[in-house]
UniProtKB/TrEMBL annotation:
Molecular-function annotations in GO: metalloendopeptidase activity
PANTHER family in alphabetical order: MUREIN HYDROLASE ACTIVATOR ENVC, PEPTIDASE-RELATED
InterPro entries documented for this protein: Cell_wall_metabolism_enzyme, Dup_hybrid_motif, M23ase_b-sheet_dom
Listed name of the protein: M23ase beta-sheet core domain-containing protein
Basic and acidic residues bias locations: 59-68
Residue numbers spanned by region Disordered: 17-68
Pro residues bias locations: 48-58
Biased composition (Low complexity): 31-47
Boundaries of every M23ase beta-sheet core domain copy: 115-212
Organism: Nocardioides silvaticus
Amino acid sequence: MPAALLVVMVVGCVAEETDETSGGSTPSVRATPTTSDAPPATVATTVTPPPAPSPEPPPQHREKDPDPRWEFYVDDRRWYRSPWFAGAHRLMIGFGCNTAPWYSPDPRCPGDQGFHHGIDVAMSCGTTLRAGTAGEVLPLDAPGSPGTAYGDDPVRLRIAGGYDVLLGHTSEVFVQPGERVEPGQRIALASDSGAPDGCHLHFEVRPAGGSVSTAVDPAEWLLLEADLRG
């Protein structure tokens, strides 16, 4: 075969092969179905509830104006409420033998301890004092009246059962001798009158007309209730 004819035939074959791959119809591509009869997968979602709010801290007991002269001679560190005074307060000195320096040695007590004839409750000057029970206000010159150690203007009430309640170290007394007072009635303010150890309430109970030597434990009448909120 002549050489020229062989070149033409080779070129024609190349051209034809090129046309099959580039100029011919493109093979169809069948897509693989992606759907199935199975339901779509469910994504589990865990809902975490918001954290519960922290409880409010109990209110801290604080005297609005603590007296730097206070000294506490009881192991009880609780705070107490009573119908005889506003707010919650701590005990300073209990009834009976104690180590407070304000009292002379007493033969009823061990060592050189003195005897306290009431219960002292530490409270800021100006704390409201109320009648914890009904009673009649006694004049200060009545038999069994307190001395100057109780302050310039103590209050004494004759109450049911034949007892006198004495509120010492008071000021701005709002009741008059002979007046009948009812439970909850404001009768005076706490002060430091006659008190070397700062503002507080001295609460004392005696048989009617009795003197300091006849004083009894006043806890039954003071009606202290521990405040457990803090």
